[in-house]
Amino acid sequence: MSEYGGDTITLTDEDGNEVELEHLDTLEYDGETYMAFGITEPDEEEEMAVIIMQAVKIGGEELLEEVRDERLLEEVYNLFLERVKEDDDEEEDEA
After folding, report:
1. Is the pLDDT of residue 3 over 60?
2. Which strands sit side by side in the sheet containing 32-39, from one edge to the other?
3. pTM of the prediction?
């Protein structure tokens, strides 16, 4: 979504630390918008971490908010995984 500045964004956490994230995908679920991000500079020994945020409007401004409900987070994460698998399957079919 272009509102977030392209393929990467920089978020500031509660402690004032800046984290650069790569936008991976956006999806609608149960009337809400969720976005998946990966940390753009993961440690070479670790796999890329995926962070899921919810787009919310606060005071007329669209912001990203952490998904705190574990059940909802798992459901949305599984939907993102299904989309990735579908994309991989389509790429294999085209090859």
Report:
1. no
2. 8-12, 18-29, 32-39, 50-58, 61-66
3. 0.74
